[in-house]
Amino acid sequence: xxxxxxxxxxxxxxxxxxxxxxxxxxxxxxxxxxxxxxxxxxxxxxxxxxxxxxxxxxxxxxxxxxxxxxxxxxxxxxxxxxxxxxxxxxxxxxxxxxxxxxxxxxxxxxxxxxxxxxxxxxxxxxxxxxxxxxxxxxxxxxxxxxxxxxxxxxxxxxxxxxxxxxxxxxxxxxxxxxxxxxxxxxxxxxxxxxxxxxxxxxxxxxxxxxxxxxxxxxxxxxxxxxxxxxxxxxxxxxxxxxxxxxxxxxxxxxxxxxxxxxxxxxxxxxxxxxxxxxxxxxxxxxxxxxxxxxxxxxxxxxxxxxxxxxxx
Length: 312
Prior knowledge:
- The chain has 14 helices and 13 strands.
- With 312 residues, the chain is an alpha+beta fold.
- The longest helix is centred in the middle third of the chain and has 21 residues, at 171-191.
């Protein structure tokens, strides 16, 4: 298992919200769905993406955009076009004052707009994420990223239009899996770009020394790893491993291991009713006390307090 696999495993879509919006110029969508992670692609037309604190980004037909964070953003045909439709949590569509048509009118399953033949067609899907593993991935992404169609072309994007307009048994699961595949395809294309400034853990995966050490850690985080054992398994000296891992990943091997264990523990505290003692052993600590000491050092709070705060 590589690092991206691990992070994406905690970012799977479950009950994702999907919309197909069909519009004519001038058009603009004010997206206020409060989703931690969203993905949108243009099936027809072109658009500008606007978000506070970010330079406007152009999207062409087939391009895919990923949005992180819950702050609103606008997608429209021109920078000066005022929003005519507001998207609320749950995919609820609200026509705004001055809209030339009632864009809340349903054109089909999960489909909204003025007319089926509209010049612009936008497909969107959003995740509702809760978890420290997911946040580790989101922290590596900008608020808005756009990947050109040529980099994400293929059957994954080609199938969405037919799937989103169907209403068959199990359709939500089909769409959730499509959203996962689309996200993986888009993120791989994004991280491959020099301008993405991919995080150290992603760049390290192609490194014969740091990459192998990372995979060992992620395959078995509960193992009592040490720098000497990791170095032996990788086939280099302890000094070489420590130097290379720190240079590529950005932190020392044991620091990374501790951070990953605490991230896993935080998710287990949030999502399960396992005891702190049990969770400690699952992530590589001898007992609850050892986990509590490490957790307090890294997070500034205790496992019990973290569980209470995240499950309130």
